[in-house]
Amino acid sequence: MLYLALGCLALVLLVWITRGKPMLKRREWRFLAGALAIACFAAAAYVGVRGGWGKSIVLVVMGLWLAASTRRTGMAVPPAAGRISDSEARSILGVGPSATEAEIKEAYGRLMRLAHPDKGGTSGLAAQLNAARDRLLKK
């Protein structure tokens, strides 16, 4: 019971010190969560061999949750083509205010080859590129 109270006190202090803001960025959290998942699986194996099946099951579930959280990717909501400004569209495609239609299409094609979901990119980034191209070419 003492360990539970100390854990709750540590959690309250951590939240109070950070004022509810996350301490770790996504990249650091993913690395830490992966390391903790491995530690949970190792501890579960050790405790399971020693006969503590209940604790072992809890550690395996914690390890699975941590391992799953390392694989989660943020699903950014892509802006609609009508909701982004010209300056946002130009900064997404990396073109200047005096860019021609050919330059816009060339920048879009170059970036889409890198950001396409089939080539390792994300669908959110591809949607942003599509929205930026549509915004600049419909002027």
TrEMBL record:
Cell compartment(s), UniProt: Membrane
SMART domains: DnaJ (SM00271)
Gene3D superfamilies: DnaJ domain (1.10.287.110)
Transmembrane spans: 30-49
Signal peptide: none
Residues covered by the J domain: 88-139
Cellular component terms (Gene Ontology): membrane
CDD domains per the UniProt record, alphabetical: DnaJ
Protein's recorded name: DnaJ-domain-containing protein 1
